[in-house]
Design goal:
The structure holds 2 protein chains of 2 kinds. Chain A has helices at 6-35, 45-52, 54-87, 93-101, 108-119, 124-132, 142-167, 171-179, 184-195, 197-213, 216-220, 227-238, 243-267, 289-306, 308-317, 334-342, 344-374, 380-389, 395-405, 423-446, 450-458, 463-491, 495-500, 509-516, 523-560; strands spanning 319-321, 330-331. Chain A is mainly α. Chain A has a two-stranded antiparallel sheet with strand order 1-2. In chain A, helix 2 (45-52) packs across helix 13 (243-267), helix 3 (54-87) packs parallel to helix 7 (142-167) and helix 17 crosses helix 24 (509-516). Chain A starts with 5 loop residues before the first helix and ends with a helix. Chain B is of the alpha/beta class. Chain B folds into 2 domains: 3-129 and 251-300, D-Maltodextrin-Binding Protein, domain 2, CATH 3.40.190; 130-249 and 321-439, D-Maltodextrin-Binding Protein, domain 2 (3-Layer(aba) Sandwich), CATH 3.40.190.10. Chain B is globular and about 80 Å long. The chains are: A mainly alpha, B alpha/beta. Chains A and B meet through helix 2 and helix 12 of A and helix 2, strand 2, helix 3, helix 5 and strand 9 of B.
């Protein structure tokens, strides 16, 4: 039996306490409704009620279909982008990676609104097609519309995770394969992709779960025959007492946990670690001119599609009137003036809340990854599972849970209630975005071979020092990816935000966008605020890429010296 | 980490906490109204009362009710401000509203047959609202659609696939329109009309705002909207038209003082302000475009501004709010099960019926007419008939807010039954209409 340091046990207990208080208790408070009868006893009759409704069965099927199709199309978009930019000498690769992250920072409902203007039944594309060829593409109709929007919104999960994984592959593996005569598609299919599988699966399971749970996009597209909208509609129309809504919440939770567990099971018992870190010291491969032209064409086409929501929002933010026309009729700068006059506080709030939340996430994420992969603390997997459960929590459920659980809790020294202070946002965001950071940190640590730490410890470095000086620097790419994902996704979170905003002065940007978008005269300012959000977060993402790049250059230089 | 660094971090955290502290003289207002409106009132109130601050809390009506209910006494918002009267009824019933008379003179007791203020004094009308039809003039021109006048127009085949509406379960105002049609036309005729309009819809939007939003940007040709959406879009330069049909109801949008708020006096001052001539005048802003509840304010309105007191908007229906309250959830559930969730099948049936009717008009066929009549009856007859509606025991299933497991089961079973029957009817109607069309070949 190995001994566990006191420090390690303490860290594990602290994380466990954090997760129990801010995740498990609020959720259990809410989910309990699905199992309780009005007298407070236990019952399964609500589940029987759920499955007796054909509408619910249909919604269940639709949700599965949409989630699966979104994963498929996300893969088609993300895999080539990741592969080309990571493995080949390619100008502007960093730009493409940054651009590829942009969809995540656009709230889904804003993206959907913009895509309606471009691809909807009277959108720019269909107006032009109708004029030139007299036919239209129903890409935004019904379930297809949801798949289309979700794909464009969530494929970066695969792109980011896969890029990090590809960067972490030992190039000698590839070279060995090439020496043995493998190349092209076969090389990718048999060697590169299998080695990057943890990253891909982490991304794909995230896409599946997010799409399965997503509420905003189907609602904006007026698709109600799916599980999450049904839960929302039941709870908000029939009332908080309607148990079917909670049954749906429970099913969403259960299914998502199952998807996560499934991908983890699939990876179990396979070794993905390689001894050397990444391709950074090796030259990336050159493309032949025609190959490179083809790659640019493919990537260019994809990027145009991926950036269309942003383009739409940008146009909207400069437009006064845009109605049944290919482009806006009247342009104006007033929208930005309105936003800067009214809403600078919201921009600041977003930075504080999401920055703090993302910081908490990477610290806890790294700690959990370490506990799970590098110690034999009993019950360590439980921490991972607990944190991961947050992924499956619809924001509405967690939001209601927070309001119920903490409604009487007062903050020490200030006299304000926790639920009406800004800390509630930090806590809510950090809990819900923790799984992203955790996945990224775990994937990063999986690729650091344990022998590197053993070497440090053999040389006499204590555990903490090994973590700080060897492990964390080697994981830095993954940690930063985790920080960025947590930050940007928290910045556009809306369902929890709506519930937790108790005063307008506390509201973050996402709430402001939502608020503006509730009126016709407000769509312009809403779009303007959306553009500001995209620009701000894009700059942050770009900066983090630069940090990784310069760190790696610095390390190489130091090794060479 | 050094002690120094920790201390600095702690100081920073405390500074942040302080940064977000609340002002002393604050009124907190929960509202479902858009930002232009709340921003205008906030600015005007703070200007008229130096040293005060208005905190706006924008929530959907039902979320606002839930929020007020969940908060403990003393930390509740001071003022509740929203359209749907039923939200105020719920709050009043749960003892969350104060009876308060701001003592403003000049506001009539009734608009049409509808009381402007709550008879028990828990909430007061602050503005008036009517429902109407809004259309995108570019869209209607491009698709060669005539301008609509009446609800019944929306049921015409020419509008198939161009209409949008929200669901009564999603929006209190849509509920009111549905009730208005039902009360104006009678249960069976009213539902028939609603089902035909539903069949003509391109979408049943989730939010009531989805309709004016979609119409103003041209996704939909025309839709059922609350007046200020149509008027505000028109006044903001969008190419849209708006009309009040003759069967429409004008009802107040309300404001009420919350019991157990943080600052009762400030709440009173705010309500007083919104009802004062100065506060009423703010409603005339082109971006807001609401109907003031104070008749004298209309003197300051621009030419052509609709005036519900001037007899220009004819409200034919004497809206019976008791009848509406009796079947409130039932109407919503019936609409959702037979229209919202079965919209695809209903629209297909409506399309097939229109097609068959057009063909039979060109080439009459008695057998075909008979089939078509059957198809119409199947698609456009409400699943719950009038006799059943009169049964209090039946209505009670959907009425109780405290539901037992057995009641819940009964309700779910009914909904399932309606949904299935509606789908079968629509599919059968599509089939029959197809046969009828084939006979006219």
């Amino acid at each position: 039996m190995p001994r566990f340091g006191l420090a390690i046990t303490a860290v594990a207990l602290a994380i466990a306490a954090f997760l129990v208080v801010f995740l498990i208790v609020p959720v259990v408070t809410v989910v309990w409704v699905a199992f309780s009868n009005p007298e407070g006893g236990f019952t399964l009759s609500h589940f029987a009620g759920f499955f007796s409704l054909s509408l619910m069965r249909e919604s269940f099927g639709n949700s599965l279909y949409v989630a699966a199709m979104a994963v498929l199309f996300s893969t088609i978009v993300a895999v080539p982008l990741a592969y080309f930019t990571v493995r080949f000498q390619f100008r502007g690769a960093i730009l493409i990676q940054t651009l590829g992250v942009l969809p995540l920072i656009m709230p889904a409902f804003v993206g959907a609104a913009a895509l309606q203007l471009l691809f909807g039944r009277s959108g720019s594309v269909n107006l032009l097609l109708g004029e030139w060829f007299d036919f239209s593409v129903p890409v935004m109709d019904g379930l297809n519309g949801v798949v289309f929007v979700e794909t464009l919104h969530y494929f970066p999960f695969i792109l980011m995770n896969l890029s990090v994984a590809l960067n972490g592959i030992d190039t000698s593996m590839e070279e060995a394969a090439q020496n043995l005569g493998s190349s092209g598609w076969r090389l990718f299919r048999r060697i590169v992709f299998p080695l990057a599988l943890p990253g891909y699966l982490a991304g794909a399971s995230l896409v599946f779960i997010k799409v399965f749970d997503d509420l905003g996009t189907p609602l904006v597209l007026n698709v109600t025959n799916m599980l999450a909208p049904q839960a929302y509609l039941r709870v908000t129309s029939i009332g908080l007492e309607d148990p079917i809504g909670y049954v749906i919440c429970f099913i969403l939770v259960g299914f998502s946990v199952a998807a996560m567990a499934g991908s983890a099971m699939f990876l179990r018992g396979r070794d993905f670690a390689t001894l050397q870190r990444g391709a950074t010291s090796l030259l990336r491969r050159e493309l032949r001119p025609w190959q490179s032209a083809l790659a640019y064409l493919w990537i260019g086409a994809l990027l145009l599609l991926v950036l269309s929501p942003h383009l739409g929002v940008l146009l909207l933010s400069f437009s006064k009137v845009w109605s049944y026309s290919v482009l806006p009729d009247v342009y104006t700068l007033d929208n930005y003036a309105t936003v800067f006059q009214d809403s600078t506080r919201m921009i600041w709030n977003t930075f504080v809340y999401c920055g703090a939340a993302a910081l908490i996430d990477v610290v806890i994420g790294t700690a959990i990854a370490y506990l799970v992969l590098r110690t034999r603390l009993p019950g360590r997997q439980l921490l991972d599972h607990m944190a991961t459960v947050a992924l499956a929590m619809p924001g509405v459920v967690l939001g209601i849970g927070y309001l119920r659980t903490f409604r009487e809790v007062e903050l020490p020294f200030t006299g304000t209630m926790l639920t009406s202070s800004w800390l509630i946002f930090v806590l809510a965001y950090s809990v819900r975005r923790l799984p992203y950071a955790l996945r990224a940190c775990t994937a990063a640590l999986q690729q650091v071979h344990v022998s590197l730490e053993e070497a440090a410890q053999n040389l006499g470095a204590p555990r903490a020092r090994t973590v700080w000086r060897v492990m964390v620097p080697l994981m830095m790419g993954g940690i930063l990816a985790g920080f960025v994902t947590s930050f940007v996704t928290a910045a556009v979170e809306i369902s929890e935000t709506i519930l937790l905003t108790s005063r307008e002065s506390l509201a973050p940007m996402s709430y402001g966008i939502y608020l503006y978008m509730q009126s016709i005269a407000g769509r312009g300012p809403g779009a303007a605020l959306g553009v500001i959000a995209v620009v701000v977060v894009a700059l942050g993402t770009y900066a983090s890429h630069r940090i990784v790049a310069s760190r790696q250059a610095h390390n190489i230089a130091r090794r060479a010296a | 980490m050094t002690v120094h660094r920790i201390r600095r971090a702690a100081a920073f955290a405390l500074a942040l906490l302080g940064h977000f502290a609340v002002h002393a003289q604050t009124v907190t207002v929960v509202t479902s109204f858009p930002k232009e409106l709340t921003a205008a009132y906030k600015a005007a109130f703070e200007k008229a009362n130096p040293g005060t601050k208005v905190e706006i809390l924008n929530k959907g009506t039902s979320a606002g009710v839930a929020y007020t209910r969940e908060a403990s006494a003393g930390s509740r918002p001071d003022v509740f401000w929203a359209s749907a009267p039923d939200a105020f009824e719920v709050l009043a019933k749960e003892g969350l509203l104060e009876q308060y008379d701001p003592g403003v003179k000049g506001i009539p007791e009734k608009i049409g047959n509808y009381p402007v203020n709550d008879p028990q004094g828990y909430y007061r009308g602050q503005a008036l609202a009517g429902y109407g039809i809004m259309w995108n003039t570019r869209y209607t021109k491009a698709h060669k659609l005539p301008d609509p006048r009446e609800w019944a127009d929306l049921a015409k085949p020419v509008y198939h696939g161009h209409v949008a509406m929200s669901s009564p379960s999603r929006s209190g105002t849509t509920h009111l329109t549905i009730e208005t049609i039902l009360q104006g036309e009678g249960w069976a005729r009213g539902w028939s009309q609603i089902l035909q309009i539903g069949g003509n819809c391109a979408a049943i939007t989730e939010r009531s705002f989805g309709v004016p939003d979609g119409v103003s940007n041209g996704q939909f040709g025309l839709g059922l909207v609350i007046d200020f959406f149509g008027l505000a879009a028109q006044n903001s330069g969008f190419p849209v038209g708006f009309v009040y049909p003759s069967v429409t109801a004008i009802v107040p949008a309300n404001i009420g003082l919350v019991k157990g708020g943080k600052d009762l006096e400030m709440g009173k001052r705010f309500i007083q302000f919104t009802l004062s001539p100065q506060g009423q005048e703010l409603l005339l802003d082109p971006k807001i475009s609401r109907l003031p509840v104070l008749p004298e304010t209309y003197a300051k309105a621009p030419a052509g501004y609709p005036n519900p007191y001037g007899g220009k908007i004819r409200a034919k229906v004497n809206f019976d709010s008791n009848a509406s309250a009796r079947r409130y959830y039932l109407v919503s559930a019936l609409f959702d099960q037979t229209i919202t969730f079965r919209h695809k099948e209903l629209a297909a049936a409506a399309g097939a019926i229109d097609e068959a009717a057009a063909r039979l008009a060109r080439k009459p066929n008695a057998e075909g007419e008979k089939l078509l009549a059957q198809a119409r009856a199947l698609a456009y007859t409400p699943i719950v008939d009038e006799a059943k509606m009169a049964d209090d025991g039946f209505v009670a299933v959907f009425r109780d807010t405290k539901r037992s497991a057995a009641k819940q089961k009964q309700m779910t079973a009914l909904e399932e039954h309606w949904g299935n029957e509606a789908r079968q009817n629509y599919e059968r109607a599509t089939e029959l209409a197809g046969k009828a069309a084939a006979m006219a070949k």
